[in-house]
Design brief:
Blueprint lengths: L13 H17 L10 H8 L10 H12 L21 H13 L6 H21 L8 E5 L2 H19 L8 E5 L4 H10 L2 E5 L9 H10 L3 E7 L11 H11 L2 E5 L24 E4 L1 H4 L7 E5 L2 H7 L31 H10 L1 H23 L4 E8 L2 E6 L4 H13 L7 E4 L2 E7 L7 H8 L4
Parallel strand pairs: 2-3, 2-4, 4-5, 5-6
Antiparallel strand pairs: 1-7, 6-7, 8-9, 9-11, 10-11
Helix pairs in contact: 1-3, 1-4, 4-12, 5-12, 6-7, 6-11, 8-9, 13-15
The protein binds pyridoxal-5'-phosphate.
Pyridoxal-5'-phosphate binds next to helix 6.
């Protein structure tokens, strides 16, 4: 069907469409503007004004609001100088493909809606499952919007399995994790209404395994252990093997939160950091963090996909038509309608090959080491921890807490570096997390020298 034949009530403006496509191309090729950043709501009240009105602004004006007002107010997370939180570094192929995918409007909730897309997503999931050392026969899962939903969906499956095995389960159930578990685990505990038994962590941020063992001996209400494979604050990797042994003894589920860190599986030389992962029951890894894919994407994998399907999935007469024997991604997490958000990862892997991914992870690890080495050579700074994976914690020996915040804010505003403080063992420190293979260590070290 040609453009003209489209029987749409909503008109197409071909020249604006061209403008939008060339803007997309420009953004992919040039990357974000490092000085873009948040503005107050009063600014948008004025600039976006009455953008939704009865007559509409038309394509051109509406798009200008996006390109001139909305984009420059977004934090440039995919810029190589964005080293806070866990930033993003989507490949050009993944970004380009994501734009294409939007246009293809594929429903990937069930096989009938998006069979080819689902098959390709499953190839990407199988790649991850094989890196985790899981037999592909039973492993499977789905791409969800982020680590929070991934952790929640896995823990719901874990609790369902526990309840099936223990029909007289206690009224209040719990999970066990370290003090360094991600904030999403607290949020999930509130939503799912379970307790958290928190075990202390050592000086590197790894779970204290003896304490974990004694907590498990004392508490019968624990249905799952959540292990860190790259804690957000410190990059710490728990003793997954030790936790897997404990999970086996107590016949409970082991979930590995690798939203950030499990990306390092893509580098075969780093995969031994995650010994014991082969014994886990579920894992998550967010391609939108360190696997070079755009937002929003979390790979949720079950070692036995059947446990995911038994816990999730929706029923309704309008769904009776869905072929229950086919692979229906909506059955594996808390969702129904979904876009095939795993496809940008699949496309990028298909374009560049997994060897390039190994190289990109290796390079990122190297950059983090170079930055950490640079920190040790700056007199006014002290390296506290790392790099663990690509997270570095360090303190300024000269600046007060408020001066540190001013310094961070200044460099964020001028676009030279996004490096924000965090808390570590009760102290305000600076934190860097590198996920971008294009980050230039020397440039970062030069900015850090201004912390004098
Ligand atoms: C270790 C870890 N788990 C879970 C999450 C939550 O992921 P999302 O922000 O995609 O929901 C994060 C986010 O930074 C994380 O670092």
């Amino acid at each position: 069907m040609t453009e003209k034949e489209r029987p749409f009530l909503f008109e197409i403006n071909p020249s604006s469409l061209e403008t939008m496509l060339s803007w997309t191309k420009m953004r992919i090729v040039s990357g974000p503007d490092p000085i873009s950043g948040a503005k107050p709501a009063s600014f948008f009240d004025k600039e976006l004004g009455n953008s939704i009105n009865k007559d509409g602004l038309g394509w051109e004006k509406a798009f200008k609001l996006f390109s001139n007002i909305i984009v420059p107010s977004a934090r440039p997370f995919d810029h190589p100088t964005s080293l806070s939180f866990v930033a993003a570094a989507p490949t050009p192929a993944a970004l380009s493909f994501d734009a294409v995918l939007g246009a293809a409007e594929i429903f990937a909730g069930n096989w009938d809606g998006g069979s080819g897309a689902i098959h390709a997503e499953n190839q990407a999931l199988a790649w991850l499952a094989s890196l985790a050392g899981w037999p592909l026969k039973n492993a499977g899962g789905v791409f969800v919007s982020g680590g929070t939903l991934g952790n929640l969906s896995a823990l719901h499956a874990a609790r369902t399995v526990y309840k099936t095995k223990n029909p007289n389960f206690p009224k209040k159930l719990a999970i066990l994790c370290s003090t360094e578990a991600h904030s999403s685990v607290d949020a999930i505990a509130r939503v799912m209404d379970f307790e958290i038994i928190r075990v202390s962590s050592d000086e590197f941020g790894r779970i204290n395994i003896n304490e974990a063992a004694s907590s498990l001996n004392k508490a019968s209400e624990i249905f799952a252990i959540v292990a860190n494979a790259g804690a957000t604050n410190s990059g710490a990797i728990d003793d997954i093997s030790g936790l897997a042994d404990l999970a086996k003894i107590h016949d409970i589920w082991l979930h590995v939160d690798g939203a950030y860190g499990l990306a390092a599986l893509a580098d075969p030389e780093s995969s031994n950091l995650f010994k014991g992962l082969e014994h886990a029951d579920s894992l998550i890894v967010d391609p939108h963090k360190w696997l070079f894919a755009p937002y929003d994407s979390c790979a949720l994998l079950y070692k036995n996909a059947i446990f995911g399907a038994q816990a999730h999935g929706q029923k309704g007469h309008y769904l009776d038509i869905v072929d229950k024997n086919a692979w229906n991604p909506s059955d594996f997490a808390l969702h129904l309608t979904r876009r095939p958000r795993g496809l940008p990862l699949w496309f990028s892997l298909a374009v560049y090959g997994s060897r390039t991914y190994a190289k990109a992870i290796k390079q990122t690890l190297k950059i983090a080491r170079q930055i950490a080495d640079g920190i040790t050579k700056i007199e006014s700074l002290e390296l506290i921890l790392g790099p663990q994976l690509t997270v570095i914690l360090f303190r300024s020996l000269k600046l007060s807490k408020s001066e540190l915040y001013d310094w961070s804010e200044r460099h964020r505003r001028d676009g030279s570096l996004l490096c924000l403080p965090t808390m570590w063992k009760g102290e305000t420190v600076l934190r860097i997390c590198v996920v971008n293979p294009d980050t230039e260590a020397k440039k970062i070290i030069d900015v850090l020298k201004t912390l004098a």
